[in-house]
């Protein structure tokens, strides 16, 4: 009785494995073994015995003739079963062609010795055998089989084998299908050698199929196996070996200490049939799932993209493995819709802070909201692990250099929910530059981050996940960064040179000499207070901006910020945090902070920007010595006009009225008694009587003495003016005085024609005319200390007119009593920068008895000064002093002293 079946495979030149034409759902097809009657062919070898001569060629002939085709066969005799698989002895034909006859005719089988009487059919077969033998066909070839070695076991040196053949295309035959994605193939190596290897299809994994009787398969495991088996078993294919089966990258594993791995039992590779890549067809049929970590092997060739596209088709059609899959949660994410919070998913932004190697804060271009983002599917090295600290800092610095202050395109891929100590976080893909480079991909490729291994059905992942996997594969292959096996010790903590004022003082002069110093803003403490990091020296310092004061921010919940303190802090943080900057130092404060200037992009003066934005006010005392003070005042005027921030409620008219009232009050009101130690440093008689004093506070004079010592040393060398230097009014300069020494000075007016300038020596008050040749620009290191000389005049009194014969006598008397001497002064009035002083000689015995005794009254009693009723509008506010002065006038008149020598010459009141 004839039966039909499909030839599943060929065991040798005389034995076939058949299967049913119809396959029941979820069950393996029924099989039977058919031995061709009266024939014998060479047997293939195994791991324990070699091939018989011509065994491979004999099997190849029958394989090419029969595999995958429908066969008609008749069983002559049933043999004992093997693992419940029926075995028959019989005959078969394909399309009317008798297989036994074909084998004999081509010399690939022999007739067995017959114990029965030969039939006509037997005689025909014998004739075919004799013809093949006479022609030297097949196994009768007199030259014998081609020499080759056949290795039935996996290569012992797996890594060397992969290295030798990786990426190369080899001809092969599929010898066995263990499940839908696991094959045993015969590699036909170019030199003729045959190598048996086990191959797992790259990028995919099908459900497990049963391998022995009674074992159950996973759902759709049998279907997947049959899908591959029916297409590939004993078919010629092209194979590429890609990798050993290392499922994960192993950061920080030292390869030097690792033991040699055992021989691999399987390789990962691709198997290409003339009809295409079976892996893609399996996925499209819903019979295999994608293995994410293989993306590194496939992304460069586009293989992973094709698998993703195939999977999408299977999911849409709900085929097999995806029959019960939920609707993709990522479907709504592809568009630029909104988060559950209502914020846009896709937007342009500016990076304002880098928190770590995988987290940044951005400000949206349109919304202006700050959002903290996690890079999707990316994990930075941990600062908490000593082995990872170096790479964690490298990753953070890489992000800082690439992104800080830059415009980027953000797409929020998913929101990671709050879990344990981890807060809810938006996970996003961030692209920058003209080519839209994914910063996460660059980080991972440099070995400065690893990729997160998501669960199989976890849709919350980067849309570039396959590219990230490929980047990690490249980093692992090249042993970059965390994959290098090198354990670099943690970097040393930076030295805080602002920890104490004494430590800061050691660095002050060095910073002054350097001028502008490159650094990085490590942290913004307040609108005008910054923590600066000097990478080259591994130092940090606190920098306070000179010339301005920003409103304070609350340092803890119990404090309250000053108006616009928060705005100033946020503006400075968003604009300057982690930027490359330059800074200059002028001085230090009592807590160890350095006072100076901060510059971004070489030209932007941060203090000017803050004042212009109305987020800081001018601190007049420290602004006075700055070379750019005029620009500072102009910036503040602009902020006032535009009513920006601090000045939003500024009323110029009301302020003018208030200032006028205050001025009027100050012109007439008495000041609180405040005694100062002073020295009269300069007396001037040109253009009327004037003098200057130095206030003897310990800090100022000590700083001046130190500065003058350094100033003297500085000018011992050959200091020359820069080419084309022309002093201008208001410039701070170094000028040579008539004593041949150099002093700090301020240009009052300059004449380029005469090449000379009128200067005031700001520390002593002297004025002089100096040629341009004796004037130099004032070096930055000598600008921080304010001028120590203050213009002054005598309170309440005036010396005789310069035309009077008593004028010079009065000046001489003032010189003898005051010049160069330590006196006590009380400020009775301030007129601009000029102080109205009552001078007291502490060596005068009368001072101990009379608190109103002073040089001013003494000059009046000696007839060398008069009460100045017109020039001192505030005199009425000091009735006791006026009474004292009137007594002094009476004494002068009585004694006919000085200008009263010839009678009463006092002005009419």
From TrEMBL:
<feature type="region of interest" description="Disordered">
    <location>
        <begin position="115"/>
        <end position="146"/>
    </location>
</feature>
<dbReference type="GO" id="GO:0004518">
    <property type="term" value="F:nuclease activity"/>
</dbReference>
<dbReference type="InterPro" id="IPR016685">
    <property type="entry name" value="Silence_cplx_Nase-comp_TudorSN"/>
</dbReference>
<dbReference type="Pfam" id="PF00567">
    <property type="entry name" value="TUDOR"/>
</dbReference>
<dbReference type="GO" id="GO:0005829">
    <property type="term" value="C:cytosol"/>
</dbReference>
<feature type="domain" description="TNase-like">
    <location>
        <begin position="515"/>
        <end position="649"/>
    </location>
</feature>
<dbReference type="GO" id="GO:0003723">
    <property type="term" value="F:RNA binding"/>
</dbReference>
<keyword id="KW-0963">Cytoplasm</keyword>
<dbReference type="InterPro" id="IPR035437">
    <property type="entry name" value="SNase_OB-fold_sf"/>
</dbReference>
<dbReference type="GO" id="GO:0006402">
    <property type="term" value="P:mRNA catabolic process"/>
</dbReference>
<feature type="domain" description="Tudor">
    <location>
        <begin position="725"/>
        <end position="785"/>
    </location>
</feature>
<feature type="compositionally biased region" description="Low complexity">
    <location>
        <begin position="328"/>
        <end position="342"/>
    </location>
</feature>
<feature type="domain" description="TNase-like">
    <location>
        <begin position="345"/>
        <end position="485"/>
    </location>
</feature>
<dbReference type="Pfam" id="PF00565">
    <property type="entry name" value="SNase"/>
</dbReference>
<feature type="compositionally biased region" description="Basic and acidic residues">
    <location>
        <begin position="115"/>
        <end position="134"/>
    </location>
</feature>
<feature type="domain" description="TNase-like">
    <location>
        <begin position="168"/>
        <end position="324"/>
    </location>
</feature>
<feature type="domain" description="TNase-like">
    <location>
        <begin position="1"/>
        <end position="142"/>
    </location>
</feature>
<feature type="region of interest" description="Disordered">
    <location>
        <begin position="478"/>
        <end position="497"/>
    </location>
</feature>
<dbReference type="GO" id="GO:0031332">
    <property type="term" value="C:RNAi effector complex"/>
</dbReference>
<dbReference type="GO" id="GO:0031047">
    <property type="term" value="P:regulatory ncRNA-mediated gene silencing"/>
</dbReference>
<feature type="region of interest" description="Disordered">
    <location>
        <begin position="322"/>
        <end position="342"/>
    </location>
</feature>
<dbReference type="GO" id="GO:0005634">
    <property type="term" value="C:nucleus"/>
</dbReference>
<dbReference type="InterPro" id="IPR002999">
    <property type="entry name" value="Tudor"/>
</dbReference>
<dbReference type="InterPro" id="IPR016071">
    <property type="entry name" value="Staphylococal_nuclease_OB-fold"/>
</dbReference>
<keyword id="KW-0677">Repeat</keyword>
<protein>
    <recommendedName>
        <fullName>Transcription factor</fullName>
    </recommendedName>
</protein>
């Amino acid at each position: 009785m004839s039966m039909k079946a499909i030839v599943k495979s060929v065991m040798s030149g005389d034995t076939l494995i058949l299967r049913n034409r119809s396959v029941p759902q979820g069950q393996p097809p029924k099989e039977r073994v058919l031995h061709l009657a009266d024939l014998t062919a060479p047997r293939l070898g195994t791991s324990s015995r070699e091939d018989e001569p011509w065994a491979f060629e004999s099997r190849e002939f029958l394989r090419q003739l029969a595999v995958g085709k429908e066969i008609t066969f008749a069983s002559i005799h049933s043999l004992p079963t093997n693992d419940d698989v029926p075995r028959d002895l019989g005959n078969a034909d394909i399309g009317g062609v008798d297989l036994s006859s074909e084998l004999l005719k081509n010399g690939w089988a022999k007739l067995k010795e017959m114990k029965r009487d030969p039939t006509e059919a037997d005689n025909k077969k014998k004739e075919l055998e004799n013809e093949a033998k006479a022609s030297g066909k097949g196994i009768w070839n007199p030259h014998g089989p081609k020499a080759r070695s056949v290795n039935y076991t996996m290569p012992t040196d797996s890594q060397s084998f992969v290295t030798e053949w990786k990426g190369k295309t080899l001809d092969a035959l599929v010898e066995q299908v263990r499940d839908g994605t696991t094959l045993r193939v015969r590699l036909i190596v170019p030199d003729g050698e045959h190598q048996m290897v086990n191959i797992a299809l790259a990028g995919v994994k099908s459900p497990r199929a049963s391998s022995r009787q009674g074992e159950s398969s996973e759902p759709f495991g049998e279907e997947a196996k049959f899908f591959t088996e029916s297409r590939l078993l004993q078919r010629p294919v092209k194979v590429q070996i890609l990798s050993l089966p290392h499922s994960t990258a192993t950061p920080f594993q030292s390869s030097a200490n690792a033991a040699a791995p055992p021989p691999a039992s399987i390789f990962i590779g691709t198997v290409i049939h003339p009809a295409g890549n079976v892996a893609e067809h399996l996925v499209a049929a819903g019979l295999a799932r994608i293995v994410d970590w293989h993306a590194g092997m496939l992304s460069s060739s586009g293989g992973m993209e094709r698998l993703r596209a195939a999977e999408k088709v299977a999911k849409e059609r709900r085929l097999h493995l995806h029959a019960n899959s939920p609707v993709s949660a990522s479907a709504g994410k592809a568009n630029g819709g909104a988060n559950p919070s209502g914020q846009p998913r896709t937007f342009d932004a500016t990076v304002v802070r880098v928190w770590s190697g995988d987290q940044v804060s951005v400000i949206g271009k349109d919304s202006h909201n700050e959002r903290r983002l996690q890079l999707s599917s990316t994990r930075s090295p941990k600062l908490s692990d000593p082995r990872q600290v170096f790479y964690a800092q490298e990753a953070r610095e890489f992000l800082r250099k690439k992104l800080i202050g830059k415009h980027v395109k953000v797409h929020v891929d998913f929101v990671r929910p709050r879990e344990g100590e981890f807060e809810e976080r938006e996970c996003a893909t961030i692209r920058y530059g003209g080519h839209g480079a994914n910063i996460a991909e660059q980080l991972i490729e440099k070995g400065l981050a690893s990729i997160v291994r998501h669960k199989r059905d976890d849709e919350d992942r980067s849309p570039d996940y396959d590219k990230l996997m490929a980047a990690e594969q490249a980093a692992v292959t090249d042993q970059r960064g965390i994959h290098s096996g090198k354990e670099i010790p943690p970097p040393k903590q930076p030295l805080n040179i602002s920890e104490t004022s004494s430590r800061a003082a050691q660095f002050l002069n060095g910073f002054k000499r350097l001028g502008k110093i490159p650094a990085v803003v490590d942290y913004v403490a307040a609108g005008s207070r910054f923590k600066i990091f000097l990478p080259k020296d591994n130092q940090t310092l606190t920098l306070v901006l000179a010339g301005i004061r920003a409103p304070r921010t609350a340092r803890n919940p119990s404090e309250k910020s000053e108006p616009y303190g928060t705005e100033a802090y946020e503006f400075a943080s968003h604009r300057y945090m982690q930027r490359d900057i330059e800074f200059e130092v002028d001085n230090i404060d009592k807590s160890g902070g350095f006072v100076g200037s901060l510059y971004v992009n070489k030209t932007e003066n941060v203090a000017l920007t803050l004042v212009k934005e109305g987020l800081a006010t001018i601190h007049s005392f420290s602004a006075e010595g700055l070379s750019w003070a005029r620009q500072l005042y102009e910036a503040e005027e602009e902020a006032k006009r535009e009513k920006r921030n601090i000045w939003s409620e500024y009323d110029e008219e009301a302020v003018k009225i208030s200032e006028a009232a205050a001025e009027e009050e100050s012109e007439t009101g008495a000041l609180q008694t405040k005694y100062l130690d002073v020295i009269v440093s300069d007396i001037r008689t040109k253009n009327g009587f004037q003098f200057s004093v130095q206030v003897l506070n310990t800090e100022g004079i000590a700083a001046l003495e130190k500065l003058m010592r350094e100033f003297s040393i500085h000018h011992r060398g050959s200091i020359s003016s820069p080419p084309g230097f022309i002093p201008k009014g208001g410039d701070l300069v170094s000028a040579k005085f008539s004593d041949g020494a150099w002093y700090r000075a301020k240009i009052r007016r300059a004449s380029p024609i005469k090449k000379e300038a009128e200067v005031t020596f700001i520390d002593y008050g002297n004025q002089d005319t100096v040629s341009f040749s004796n004037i130099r620009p004032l070096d930055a290191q000598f600008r921080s200390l304010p001028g120590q000389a203050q213009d002054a005049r005598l309170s309440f009194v005036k010396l005789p007119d310069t035309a009077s014969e008593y004028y010079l006598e009065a000046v001489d008397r003032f010189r003898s009593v005051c010049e160069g001497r330590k006196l006590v002064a009380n400020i009775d009035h301030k007129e601009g920068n000029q102080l109205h002083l009552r001078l007291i000689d502490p060596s005068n015995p009368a001072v101990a008895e009379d608190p109103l005794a002073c040089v001013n009254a003494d000059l009046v009693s000696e007839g060398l000064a008069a009460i100045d009723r017109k020039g001192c509008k505030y005199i009425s506010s000091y009735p006791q002093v006026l009474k004292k002065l009137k007594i002094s006038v009476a004494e002068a008149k009585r004694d006919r002293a000085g200008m009263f020598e010839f009678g009463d010459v006092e002005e009419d009141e």
